[in-house]
Amino acid sequence: MCFRTCHVVIFVVIFENAIRLQNMEPGGASFGLSRSPYDIVMSTKTVRVVKGGRETDVKYFEGSWEVPKEIRKKPRHKITGTSRKNEAQARERTIAKVLAYIESWTHEPYPQPRKAPKAHEMPIDHGQRTLESFLEEWFNAELASGRWELSSASNVHQQFNDHIYPYLGKVKLDELTREMARVHFTEVLPSLKKLDKDGKPTKVNRLGASAIKNCYLYFQMAIKAAKAKNWIDSNPAHQIHMPAAPPPHQDDDNIHDLVDALIEAFLAKPDMNDQETIRVAISFFAGLRRGERCALRWADLQDLDGENPKMVIAKQLGYVSAQKGGVGHFITDSTKTGRPRKFPIPAVLIPYLKHQRAVVHEWRKSPDWNPEPDYADFVLTTPTGALIPLNDDSDLIHRWMKDQNIEIPDFVPGDLRHASATWWVGEQKAKRAELKKMFGWTKDSEMDRYYGRVDMKPLEKKAKNATLRRRNQDGE
Q: In total, how many domains does the chain have?
């Protein structure tokens, strides 16, 4: 009796499944499913991996689809797809796995949804496309491809908004000429000046040669794409020669004076409890860029109490506002040049770092200490562990300069890096190869643009003289 009953039950189940599969029709739930295979839940997750011998968190995207009861093989069955590239790819991979799973039950493909035509498939009158509308279309396509980090994409879009659209944005794409592009990048942009608080032009260039070149390179990439699609007959960005890089806005005398003033200030032993002092000391003696010093962690300082202390620079702090589609502050996975670097910590900097370590150690004992996990190990921090906004860095350095009565014409915090290289030439007698390694340059031209001025001898002499004065005051 039991044997016959089991056979009857099995037969009924098989018969019901056969009827259900036969009755499935294309189109959402009418296909026999209570959940559309295109109803994917997306999320962003992280996984810890080892890169370059160091553990790091890598972000990835995951799509998830909960299998409906009628075709579920497990009590709690989900199908997932992942991608480190972008969310769209993770969604596509998940859908592909879901459709394959459904087809294994129905033995026929699930009907594909009707897709809206993509921008490049829509009928467009190419003669009415302006340069601005085309660059926006190209930018959105590049952004969707996942080839850009969010910070890089924000930078590109800002360059278009500030330096191209106001001048050439309304020009029709097929009417843009090489002469228009040449005049814009070699005459108009180099002639722009910064404005003072009253809105009047100053003598300082608004854009440096590297900024103009970067803007041109992205412009050129976009124009090449338009030519490849035959939207234009010729390439107006072809063979436009950028002007030679002008000298830095700081002349040699100003750099000499800055080095001298900084050494004099540190000879006077400024208060180490002043957080601005620590910030400037790290900037000047180690030559770090803004994002690098703001993201410097205690884990990056190796053997600080030993005989061979080293500093590792592998990341930087970035910022993209929510208005530009960003998440605010974030830590990048690499430096500006994309290469980590490791170099000896200057002996004069070590006491400042050790003092800061003791200060932060006391802060951590306070009940007010409550940092975000990503920023808990920062060297430059606050008594509560709160992140110091990236934009505050300049104000803090200017405040310290004022407190030390240092007045250098047209000083900007980036000049501390220039002064640092000068100090290393005289104090540490660093060679070209050592300077390239410490400052993260990949080409000789990158170093020469800032530090290979007409003659390095005056820089060496200035730094050496200041060093001798320091040693005399210390009684060496």
A: 3
Whether residues 156 and 272 share a domain: the answer is: no
Domain boundary residue among 228, 260, 282?
228
Give the tens place of pLDDT for each residue, 196-217: 777 788 888 888 887 888 889 8
Rg (CA), the chain: 30
Same domain, 71 and 205: no
Does any domain span residue 234? no
Residue 247 domain-assigned? no
Predicted TM-score (pTM) of this structure: 0.52
**Predicted pLDDT of residue 451:** 55
Q: What is the CATH number of the domain that holds 223?
A: 1.10.150
User: Is residue 434 one of the residues assigned to a domain?
Assistant: yes
